[in-house]
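All the exercises in this workshop are built on plain-text protein records. A record pairs a protein's sequence with a compact description of its fold. Backbone structure tokens are a discrete shorthand for how the chain folds in space. Once this layout is familiar, the rest of the handout is easier to follow. As an example, a complete record with its sequence and its structure tokens follows.
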Amino acid sequence: MPRNNVTPSSRTPRRHARRWKKSKISLALLAGPAVLAAVAGSVFAAGSHPSPAQRRAAGSPKASARPTPAAAPDPNCTLVVPDRPLTARGLATPYELLATDPAKGPCHEARPGQAAFVEAAVLTRDGTLTVYHPLVIDHGTAPAAPPVRASVPDGAIVGIWFGFNGDHLTLKASGARSLAQGACVNGVPGSDFGQFAYCNAPAFFQAARTQIAAGRLVVPVPGTAKDGLPCPTTRDFSVVDQDGSDNVVTRYLVGADGRTAQSNAANKAALGGTAKDLANGSDNLLLTQFMDPALGCTPFTAPDQSAGGQATSALVLDELSAAAGQKAPIALVPQNDPMTLVDGRASTEKTDAYRAGVGMPPIGSADGGNGNGAAYCTTLFHDPAGIRRVFADRALLAAAPSPDPAMASNLFTFLAARGRQSFTELGCDRLLGTADPVTLTTGAGGLVTDAALAEGGPTPASGRDPHSARPWAPNATATPATATTTATASCSAAPTAQPSRPARPGNG
């Protein structure tokens, strides 16, 4: 159900989660494509459909998206959804970012902490699946380069997903009907998800399941990782954190004047060496760009229409892969996920609304389990398939680069720090009655250089959660804690010199 206005009191508590969430994928991406490979290939014939405001802005030499310096940009922004967003014309029309509360200052797409991202998928009648990355620009400005023309054949279905590097992204209709036209969901009445939203996702996943059953859409099953275990998916307990299956892999180019363009070879050439790479921190990007290479795994990809057919991963591809191949225990979004809370309390309605957007079964269904928070915490921290797999794979992960070298020295320490924060954000301390099992070693500037995991843990109560095939503690419901975790070093180590990088707003 569309959400146009959200009062501050109704928002999901996220402030305390942002410290580690900001570092999901480093803002170092803004300094250039240091992590993601350069996009190659030619774009489709250019052909965007700017709004009247965008056309006026394009003709004005004063139109610029360069943000005015601000000490603390407002982390809450609004994204204007174009008319008929599920059509080819709608996909190629830029979304416009503006302040939710202008009194708190403007929102600028070029600001990493305020950047919003859009990711779409197109599924044709014959099972052909492609990805398209609609562009986000500042309200009242023009793109740095015209968006690539999208292709939506007759009979095809389109799904759209949103990610945000701030706290709360509110979708707003460009006219009277664009949210309804797109079947857009920002949360439930009175409570948005926060950094995530979607349009037409449930219908898209249903169409994909139909195509898979008919043999027209083939989703590769995850292979075997270097540790001898199945390659992880976004529903693997070694991958998830306090809010799994959120945000997207979309990235944009930011020109010298602060205006944005789709990330493709043509635009990189046109904008020259001054263009910066803007990325959305997500479980998906963490998995496909960091964990998969470290574990010798290959993600499910599809052609990117906005980048000349370059193969790309995407949220929808990761979720389809997870649905096809993730073995028990399966990490479905629980009721203590901060994005699914309503006024700090668990909500089956909101959890189901979130699950529907990522193709997960609802709570109470045959495969949906009960969303029990204590069961989720137990598996995440005390099952070999959870954070314990990260520690078992220390050698493989420690040899891989950190998504944020200013926060953690390598991929292993990054994942350990992320796990420690998730313990608090999920309220596992209170649900399980135990202390955080992850201890971090930090060096100068708080850089995480090592981590340890306590052995043992609580003995799960009898019973089984149908979706995980693991023991769970029945009927445990409680509001997760939102206190900030302090990383206490068990010893001190001199960190390797790292480049200075800003904190990364991101998610996943």
